[in-house]
Amino acid sequence: MLQQIQSRDAELELRVQERTVELSDANDQLQQPLQEKIVLLKEIHHWVKNNMQVVSRLLSLQTRDISSPRELEMFVNGQNRIKTMALIHEKLYQSDDLFETYKISP
Questions:
Q1: Does residue 62 form part of some domain?
Q2: Long-range contacts for 54-63 (Cβ within 8 Å, ≥24 apart)?
Q3: Which domain does 21 fall in, by range?
Q4: How confident is the model at residue 41 (pLDDT cuts 50, 70, 90)?
């Protein structure tokens, strides 16, 4: 009887080890696409951030040649909107919710 229990325990232990290897392999296969998406997300963040800075700088350069107070106000408002969108974008990117699902840091 003891021999049967030990034999069954050894068989179960072997099955647990095999299943652990299978699950580890499956996890590894899932990690690669996840890491690719993370890299893509970081690149998109970088591009959006840079593009907003370019637009803000262009608006700033345009304001140098404006003499009309109304036109100047319109350009400054546009520049402020771009800065606001950039701040929101940065806050979303730094948000824990964005990376919490995957247990990674930005």
A1: yes
A2: 55/82, 56/82, 56/83, 56/86
A3: 2-100
A4: confident
